[in-house]
Task: inverse folding
């Protein structure tokens, strides 16, 4: 299967990216896998100030996946500008790199775009909209507040010409409406989905297994929610979609393509097997040969995108 695809005005050598928070800034995995074999990756979310993150333990496993509460641990804007992105610019040529940004107020997102836009080493921003909206006391996460989604994305759009990829939530009761708001505010693409809120308790004590209490669920258990979200979003927009949630092997990536995703991101699988992404790329090539599918873009993504679009206009 021909895996090259053209999305957001640029060529990707294959549709497989590593998801935000699972590969750091690339350098953490350079001795484990060939970053240049990937379609791309999304950096750890960058915030204005360095963050140490939440108390340990930050990760807990369960049979269908993983629960995590990292707390956006990252070196902050200044270090991303002076250390992390220059390393990427020197060492990554073929893989497309997106920088994830996260904030607790609209202004924080805008300052991050202003601070990073002039730096080399990445092609676009993934806007992590799952942070709580502290601009309103007790406010919902940005992704669940359509007005906040519009405010963040329109402000970012006014400050950069780079692609903006809006990362939305799986538990949005009006996802199609949020997708339309994101598109109207200037989003160039969508990432669906982020983790699903969850809780694990020690059976003997009843206390939370994570130091911060609740966390975000990822892994195979998230896949049905991810596929549903991608399909629902595809009926509402023609924007490119990055499908993420429970991608372990070729059939999972194919399912996302058939739901309407242009690219896929792999996250939790890389914690279990650091070389899972290169294995997925090889698996897609084998899958295509077995099933007589010659093109990821033409025979999988485009066909199902057109089908979904017809469904909204019929």
Result:
């Amino acid at each position: 299967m021909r895996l090259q695809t053209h999305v957001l005005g640029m060529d990707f050598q294959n549709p497989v990216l590593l998801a935000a928070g699972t590969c750091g800034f690339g350098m953490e995995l350079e001795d484990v896998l060939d970053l240049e074999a990937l379609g791309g990756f999304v950096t750890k979310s960058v915030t204005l100030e360095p963050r140490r993150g939440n108390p340990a333990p930050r990760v807990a496993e369960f049979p269908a996946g993983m629960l995590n509460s990292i707390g956006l641990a990252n070196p902050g804007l200044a270090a991303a500008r002076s250390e992390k992105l220059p390393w990427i610019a020197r060492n990554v040529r073929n893989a497309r790199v997106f920088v994830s940004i996260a904030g607790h107020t609209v202004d924080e997102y805008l300052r991050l775009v202003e601070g990073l836009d002039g730096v080399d080493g990445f092609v676009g921003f993934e806007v992590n909209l799952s942070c709580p909206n502290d601009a309103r006391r007790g406010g919902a996460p940005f992704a669940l507040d359509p007005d906040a989604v519009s405010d963040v994305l329109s402000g970012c759009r006014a400050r950069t010409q780079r692609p903006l990829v809006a990362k939305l939530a799986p538990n949005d009761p009006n996802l199609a409406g949020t997708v339309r708001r994101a598109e109207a505010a200037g989003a160039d693409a969508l990432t669906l989905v982020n983790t699903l809120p969850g809780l694990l308790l020690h059976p003997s004590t009843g206390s939370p297994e994570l130091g911060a209490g609740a966390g975000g669920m990822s892994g195979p258990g998230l896949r049905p929610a991810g596929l549903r979200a991608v399909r629902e979003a595809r009926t509402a927009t023609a924007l490119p979609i990055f499908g993420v949630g429970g991608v372990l092997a070729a059939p999972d990536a194919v399912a996302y393509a058939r739901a309407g995703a242009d690219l896929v991101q792999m996250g939790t699988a890389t914690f279990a097997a650091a070389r899972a992404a290169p294995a997925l790329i090889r698996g897609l090539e084998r899958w295509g040969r077995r099933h007589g599918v010659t093109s990821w873009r033409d025979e999988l993504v485009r066909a199902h995108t057109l089908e979904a679009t017809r469904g909204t206009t019929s």
